[in-house]
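LAB NOTEBOOK - FOLDING QUEUE
OPERATOR: T.R.
BATCH SIZE: 2
PURPOSE: Compare the predicted structure-token outputs for two unrelated chains run back to back under identical settings.
PRIORITY: normal
REVIEWER: second-year student, initials M.K.

ITEM 1
FIELD SEQUENCE / FIELD STRUCTURE:
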Amino acid sequence: MIQLKKVTVQLPNGKQSTREVVVHPGAVAVLAEPQPGTVILVRQYRKACETSLWEIPAGKLEPGENPDAAAIRELSEETGYQASRVEKIHRFYTSPGFANEVLHVYYATDLVAGDVHLDEDEFVEMERFTKEEVTQMMQRGEINDAKTLVALLWWCQTDR
């Protein structure tokens, strides 16, 4: 659950101003590599953007949930895959100008296929892509999700 707060801030010049801040529980995202050189992306409709986006599997943290556990949970829910190895690669603020959301990005390998467990309001299409394919998709502007761009740029620049 997110909240919107209106807060008063003290500015460096001594004056006060108001800010609207979205308070967010945080989230996780997982760049999953089922085979060397292949990544899993999911495509889903995002109402806020009024379009479908290719993304790495991701989701909000539950209250008090450990991000490492949430990454494993989200990967399984959206793709059915269980990861034997999960490594945190980044942690960043998604939109610090108005939100406190921290996103934890993970890299998952040694995957074992299983059953997808989507929430009843989730409709997700899953597909595998090679480094060359995602590089071309990024160059053509077909990947517009920031967390996915961060993860894919990291992946494409590594020797993994």
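ITEM 2
FIELD SEQUENCE / FIELD STRUCTURE:
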Amino acid sequence: MLLTIRYFAGAKAAAGVDDEQLSLPPESTVDDVLKLVRDKHGEPLTRVLTASSLLLDGIAVRDTKISVAGGRELDVLPPFAGG
């Protein structure tokens, strides 16, 4: 299964890329994906992820134990400043 992760704002800066594709086993969860990107990108992204919202195919992720099977995109949205 192939999943695209899109990073925005501070998450993009911490990851050093706009997006990336991960090949995952079919039983993978959002937690599994987050562990992979934390291991890959290290402490800067780990810090951003603690405050970020996640969207799986445009739908807010409230439970990171949900399966990403069938998902095509996971968006990482850090808090935005402004008004």
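REVIEWER COMMENT (ITEM 2): The chain has a mean pLDDT of 93.
FOLLOW-UP: none requested
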